[in-house]
Amino acid sequence: MRADLLKLTAIVLLSAAAPLLPSRAAPQLDYQFFKERVQPIFLQKREGHTRCYVCHAEGNNAFRLKRLSSGATTWNEEQSRKNFEMASLLVNPGDSTTSRLLQQPLAPEAGGNVFHSGGRQFASTNDPAWKTLADWVNGQKL
Q1: Comparing C-alpha atoms, which of 41, 50, 47 is closest to residue 134?
Q2: pLDDT of 9 above 70
Q3: How far is C-alpha 65 from the geometric centre of its chain's CA atoms?
Q4: Full-model pTM
Q5: Where are the alpha helices (DSSP H) in 18-141?
Q6: Where are the domains of the chain?
Q7: Cβ count near 86 (within 10 Å)
Q8: What three-state secondary structure class fits 95?
Q9: Whether residue 17 has pLDDT greater than 50
Q10: How far is CA 15 from CA 11, 24, 49, in A?
Q11: Mean pLDDT of all residues in the chain?
């Protein structure tokens, strides 16, 4: 009986101290990783889908990419910084499972949101492009 009381006391004390313990800080999103690894995904043509850029540079949606300059095949520095800022608003650093940027284009059967008008760009979290997005959200650096 005494041992049970001691265990219960220890649990209560640890539970009360938990908010005082240092928490793991969310990782910092790396601009260079975004620019060199993530941004190209938005321009990539995927089998059976249109490029992310087509809808997200023209549409009226939460994720707005900057329009490419005339004749350009990628974004300039200013455009890339603005894309980084926009994409950063749609992620929870360190948590790819709740980041809208990763959940919207992911198939529902793989844990994604039910609705994404652009279709299911990623059938699973094993897709290399999805993993690259997740790496960025989880703080990967170049």
Answers
A1: 41
A2: no
A3: 15
A4: 0.79
A5: 31-33, 39-43, 52-56, 77-89, 100-103, 128-137
A6: 24-137
A7: 16
A8: strand
A9: no
A10: 6, 17, 49
A11: 85
